[in-house]
Design a protein that fits this description.
This protein has 263 residues and is of the alpha+beta class. It is built from eight helices and 13 strands.
Length: 263
């Protein structure tokens, strides 16, 4: 397997380099199962990206007018606006879920049920196993008799309460039972580290649409990082992203060639 690595200045730079390079280094294959089954796509064997200044605006791709193609991500999609019932920020950072949605990233991050053995240990106040905290309505809260936690606020509180240097603070999206879903979450985890008084993110996607998904996802995740850094009281830092399935669907290949002046 070839591990393709890109070092980028900011998020638009990461996107452009990845789009440019996949045309040369991606492997073409037919999709057996999942989104666009039966179609072909280009895919990296394994992709890593290191973004030095992901908070630099604009966060979305740069598409010169001369290319004659639309931007794969609209600002209104990220932040809300005409044509969109909810913003991507809301999808990522709130627990709201529409009927028919099997999950949202925001539900997994901000509305996590405490159940099973963990609930039993919580109720018995077994502090040797459980990091017991007050039900404050923000970090830990009750709804309809059930107990939930907000991972984002829990991690912010833990860093502020116990200091910056530990390896436990992972925002986790995936559940083991997700293997039963027809379309399980692509984003699996956002690991965090505070180093030199700066919050850095380490992001892993099992599968990742390069053309429109990567720029939208990372713009939203960068807004999350900015929020958490401000709440903790540290600087907003770098981002390292990884995927064993970063790909370019067939429909986007011609658009990628136009953006990279390959036509």
């Amino acid at each position: 397997m070839h591990i393709h690595h890109i070092k980028a200045r900011d998020l638009p730079d990461l996107w452009f380099q990845a789009v440019h390079d996949i045309l040369d280094h991606g492997r073409r294959f037919t999709i057996d199962r999942g989104s666009y089954a039966g179609q072909t796509r280009l895919e990296y064997d394994y992709f890593t990206g290191h973004v030095l200044y992901p908070g630099t605006h604009p966060l979305i791709p740069d598409i010169p007018p001369a290319c004659g193609i639309p931007n794969p991500v609209e600002e209104a999609y990220i932040y809300g606006g005409e044509g969109y019932e909810r913003s991507y920020i809301e999808y990522l950072m709130t627990g709201h879920k529409e009927p028919g949605e099997s999950y949202t990233y925001g539900e997994r991050l901000t509305r996590v049920p405490i159940n099973g053995d963990k609930l039993k240990w919580w109720k018995s106040e077994n502090k040797e196993i459980i990091d017991l905290r007050d039900i404050d309505g923000r970090i830990v809260f009750e709804e309809d008799g059930r107990l939930y936690l907000n991972q984002i606020e829990w991690i912010i509180d833990t860093y502020k309460r116990h200091g910056h240097r530990n390896n436990q603070m992972v925002l986790q999206i995936a559940h083991p039972s997700d293997v039963t879903l027809v379309d399980p979450p692509c984003l699996r985890s956002i690991d965090t580290r505070i180093q030199d008084d700066t919050l850095n993110f380490f992001v892993y996607f099992r599968s990742w649409d390069l053309w429109g998904g990567l720029p939208a996802n990372l713009a939203g995740i960068q807004n999350l990082k900015t929020y958490m850094a401000d709440a903790i009281g540290v600087k907003d830092g770098e981002m390292i992203v990884e995927s064993k399935g970063l790909h370019l669907y067939g429909y986007a290949e011609d658009l990628a060639k136009l953006r990279c002046l390959r036509v």
